[in-house]
Design a protein that fits this description.
It contains twelve helices and 13 strands. With 383 residues, it is α+β, with helices and mostly antiparallel strands. A hairpin with a 2-residue loop joins strand 6 and strand 7. The radius of gyration is 31 Å and the shape is elongated.
């Protein structure tokens, strides 16, 4: 019974941690992913016309539409260089993401008067040793020209644009290590996209209407565009978390199955110890079916009591630990720049049902053989 309780406690705690990780993944991605994203099905860019803009803006519950030009480029700073993802966004980008709260140092701005600035991921700043305190060393972006002729001078095969860094963002490793945010005008000047865009990012007036807005956009542009909500934008990451969670559930179930041998041997010893009592019951007319039910009920009782104790202890543990974990962060990620320092814990009540079912199934299965052996006892040999 104690083994069942401890196993139930361990499984419910592990599943709750994975629930928290999944929830944290969504929060991290929503920091720089829009509620709805439109990307072309064919090619990496599309023409963003006035008629298309008007059609989108007429959709109810739509708050902002941010134009995006995004591509890889070579970034040079002083004597260092690296390939980065340059994302040019229109002025209303701040309405799409919660990046302002992820500012580590510097200022949060892309345009001030006639001047344009860049916001860097923390990893980009670290790898290139970029200083925000100097106005003499700009970021220099190199992007290949769209031309068929081959230039003998390699420098002429690239467009070069300069911009000053103004702020550093810390979101997650994927963003921090290769992302640079710049104004849309700067990205267009660098990449020569003209009236083309690589994506549109759409914010809704209320999170509850995202599904309806997405449906209306699909009705209008579904033939030519992929229109994705936040979960669909990070489908691969969330799928990986769910698969990992499933494997943990199966592995723990196997471990609990092995631990159930204690229940099997306990019931088997009980059958041996109670041979005389079983013979007396047989003499009173107890059928084999009744004897089988008695031992199956014994296994079910062990499972029910142990599972109930385990679930109650698990719930109490999670309620206490989740409070102190979020408050003080005893178990952390080990990253000083991460916004979420502590491992998250999230309770989902359906997990309690799944854990209870698997524990009942394993424990009752362990009682089947002892129950069957009880029906084979010969009454005449023990009376």
């Amino acid at each position: 019974m104690v083994g069942v309780a401890v196993g139930t406690l361990a499984l419910i705690v592990v599943l709750s941690v994975f629930n928290g990780m999944e929830d944290l993944t969504v929060k991290l991605y929503s920091a720089y992913h829009p509620q709805i994203q439109m990307v072309a099905k064919r090619g990496k860019s599309f023409v963003f016309s006035d008629s298309m803009a008007n059609q989108i803006k007429q959709i109810p519950d739509l708050k902002e539409v941010t134009e995006v030009i995004e591509d890889n480029a070579l970034l040079r700073y002083d004597n260092a260089q690296m390939a980065v993802n340059v994302k040019g966004v229109s002025n209303n980008f701040d309405q799409q993401y919660d990046l302002r709260s992820r500012l580590i140092s510097g200022e949060f701005k892309l345009i001030e008067g006639n001047k344009m600035f860049a916001l860097l991921g923390f990893g980009v700043q670290s790898l290139l040793s970029i200083s925000l305190k100097t106005d003499f060393t700009p970021l220099i972006f190199w992007y290949p020209r769209k031309q068929k002729e081959i230039e003998l001078d390699p420098s002429k095969a690239f467009i070069q644009e300069q911009i000053m860094p103004v702020g550093v963002l810390g979101v997650d490793q994927q963003f921090d290590n290769n992302h640079v945010l710049v104004p849309l005008e700067f990205a267009n000047r660098l990449m020569q996209y003209g009236n083309k865009r690589t994506s549109l990012e759409i914010a809704c007036t209320n999170p509850n209407v995202v599904g309806e807005v997405q449906k209306q956009l699909m009705d209008l542009f579904g033939n030519d565009f992929y229109i994705k909500n936040i979960e669909e934008q990070q489908a691969q990451v969330l799928r990986a978390v769910k698969i990992e969670r499933l494997f943990v559930y199966l592995v723990f179930s196997m471990i609990l199955g092995i631990a159930s041998f204690n229940i099997f041997f306990s019931l088997a010893m009980l059958v041996i110890e109670k041979k005389k009592d079983i013979a007396i019951l047989q003499s009173f007319g107890a059928s084999k079916n009744l004897l089988r039910k008695i031992f199956l009920f014994e296994g079910g009782l062990i499972a029910f009591v142990g599972c109930t104790l385990g679930l109650l202890m698990g719930l109490a543990f999670l309620l206490v630990v989740s409070h102190f974990q979020q408050e003080y962060g005893f178990a952390g990620f080990g990253s000083e720049i991460n916004i979420f320092l502590a491992y998250p814990v999230k309770i989902i009540w359906t997990d309690f049902v799944y854990v209870c079912l698997i524990m009942l199934l394993i424990t009752i299965a362990a009682a089947v053989v002892p129950a069957k052996n009880a029906t084979k006892i010969n009454m005449n040999e023990h009376l």
